[in-house]
Amino acid sequence: MQSNRSILENKFIEKFTETMKAVLPILGIVLLLCFTIAPIPPSILMTFLTGAGLLIIGMLFFNVGVDLSMTPIGERTGTIMTKSKNLFIVMLVSFIMGFVITISEPDLQVLAQQVPSIPNITLILAVALGVAIFLVLAILRMLLGVPLSYLLVFFYITIFIMTLFVSKDFLSVAFDSGGVTTGPMTVPFIMAFGIGISAIRSDRHAADDSFGLVAMCSIGPILAVMLLGIIYQPKSGEQVSDSIHIIDNTVDLWNLFAVEFPTYMKEIAVSLLPIVIFFAIIQFIVRDITKKTVIKITIGLTYTYIGLVLFLTGVNVGFMPAGNYLGQTIAGLSYSWIIIPIGMIIGYFIVKAEPAVFVLTKQVEDLTDGAISAKAMGMSLSIGVAVSVGLAMTRVLTGISILWFLIPGYFVALLLTFFVSKIFTAIAFDSGGVASGPMTATFLLPFAMGACKALGGNIIADAFGIVAMVAMTPLITIQVMGVIFKIKENKLHKTAASQAIRTTLDSYGDMEIIEL
Questions:
Q1: Is pLDDT at 239 greater than 50 in this prediction?
Q2: What is the pLDDT of residue 193?
Q3: Got the DSSP string for 460-482?
Q4: Alpha carbon separation from 505 to 52, 187, 498, 500, 512 (Å, rounded)
Q5: CA distances from 104 to 20, 99, 149, 204, 406 (A)
Q6: Residue 353 and residue 322: Cα distance in Å, rounded?
Q7: What's the rounded Cα separation, in Å, for the pair 348 and 340?
Q8: Can you tell me the distance from the alpha carbon of 326 to that of 152, in angstroms, rounded to the nearest whole number?
């Protein structure tokens, strides 16, 4: 027992260090802005700092909880499903799981409230259906060994053809939906589920194909929301809530957060419950789990629940008003162009605080035995997000259509799929969905909305789309990393081959000398 306690303590210490490294830079940047070029009211600053405290504690519990529960549950479920050898059961279970988990995703509720003209429940069900269908397609791709790049090229060409029939003001929301729905609840389970399913394949490409599920599941929501856009023909209404609460004292500050705690406690309970019930049913049928493992998973689920409640309360209540106000203040300066480099710096660091990024980078490092390090992955993601936020701020300032960025961006990303190894393509497209999580939705999106409001732009058309931009650029940067990795690998092989030839020739020369 002491050994288990020591392991848990070490895990908490490790995750606390990671969390502080991720969160402190963004805190420092915001505070620097607040005390220099973008002053904000003390009440908003206090709300932000309180939210940051909750975020740190929440991320700590979430990351420990995922390691103890969500990852093992996903892997075991995937392995058990494929052991059944019944393709219909695998497809049915994948569909139900994708549908239920998506409905439970907290970020989807936020998206539904922002979309004009479409009933919330209609959008939620359509997006969930899109994720469920594409999760089934992703599982079939893994089991049949179909190259991911072929499917990505086909579906993204389909998406861009559909843009011709969707309202231009609605395109940003449609593309945002792909990143928002692959959030902190969906990603850990789906990625672990993929690893579990790939375990049944014994060929050398099985590990490569264990990635790519998030990439496929990000396509479904985009297509679903576009279809709804064609049906409902929504206009560019300004149905966006950007109210900022001004508090007068610490009691009001506490009440501001206390009011929201029950909301997120209920949301996360609803989100976790289907996964728990689903796993319990499977284990009841299979009955191959030990009591010790059950206790470990139960503790992990408790940590995951506490972590997500604290995290989402902190960022939704504390970060949204600060992001919105900072965006308004900076865009209102006489040198409003400075919002581009500031946005890039914020983007570089804020992706490190995304909960699902920790999950992805760790699984990539573990599955590749360190060949693709978490540090290299993190750097590529940060560079990608920095570029995307810079482009998004350029859109806010100029009102350029999002298609001028998405079409060439995805063209380059899809072109690179034919020049890098399969695993880099799968990881890159997974990274797009993972990078655009709750930190983007609760800080960067309000930041863009505040700037757009100050400049008198169209919030739906110009501010929305930042999530889509954040989801796009990692596809390029991670694959560029793959190209560099491939070049280095080829050089090493050439060097090794040259050394082997040289050694052989030297040996042959020595033999000639001996004979003489």
A1: no
A2: 76
A3: IIIITTHHHHHHHHHHHHHHHHH
A4: 64, 54, 10, 9, 11
A5: 28, 9, 29, 35, 29
A6: 16
A7: 12
A8: 37
Q: Give tens-digit pLDDT for 379-396.
A: 889 999 999 999 999 999
Q: Output the CA torsion 107→109→265→292 (10° steps).
A: -60
Tokens standing for residue 465: 């789309």
CA distance 360 to 61: 17
As a whole number of angstroms, the distance between CA 329 and CA 233 comes to 34
Across the range 454-476, mean pLDDT stands at: 86
* Helices and strands of the chain, counted as H and E runs: 22, 0
CA distance 67 to 76: 13
Cα distance between residue 506 and residue 448, in whole Å = 65
- Nearest CA among 320, 292, 256, 269 for reference residue 113: 320
Is the Cβ–Cβ distance between 410 and 157 less than 8 Å? no
Distance CA 216, CA 214 (A): 5
The CA–CA distances, whole Å, from 120 to 64, 109, 350, 484 equal 33, 8, 29, 44
DSSP reduced 3-state for 450: helix
Of 324, 339, 319, the closest CA to residue 257 belongs to 319
Predicted local confidence at residue 237, as pLDDT: 46
> How far, in Å, CA of 366 to CA of 370, rounded?
6
pTM over 0.85: no
Place of tokens 């959008």: 123
Tokens of 381: 């993601």
Which of 188, 77, 212, 83 minimizes the C-alpha distance to 135? 212
**Cα(220)–Cα(46) distance, integer angstroms:** 39
Structural contact between residues 206 and 213, judged by C-beta atoms closer than 8 angstroms: no
Instruction: Decide if pLDDT at 202 tops 60.
Output: no
Tell me if 111 sits within 8 A of 229, measured CB to CB: no
Q: Where are the alpha helices (DSSP H) in 199-290?
A: 206-209, 213-232, 250-286
Q: Which amino acid is at 500?
A: A
The pLDDT assigned to 390 comes to: 95
pLDDT at 217 over 60: yes
In this structure, are residues 431 and 474 in contact, taking their beta carbons and an 8 Å threshold? yes
Task: Report which of 359, 34, 338 is spatially closest to residue 182, judged by C-alpha positions.
Answer: 359
Separation of alpha carbons 444 and 426, rounded Å: 26
Residue 289: Cβ within 10 Å count: 15
Closest CA relative to residue 481, chosen from 386, 374, 390: 374
pLDDT on residue 509 = 54
CA-based angle 402:406:410, to the nearest 5? 175
Mean pLDDT for the chain? 82
Task: Give the mean model confidence (pLDDT) for residues 396-402.
Answer: 90
Torsion sign over Cα 56, 60, 63, 65: negative
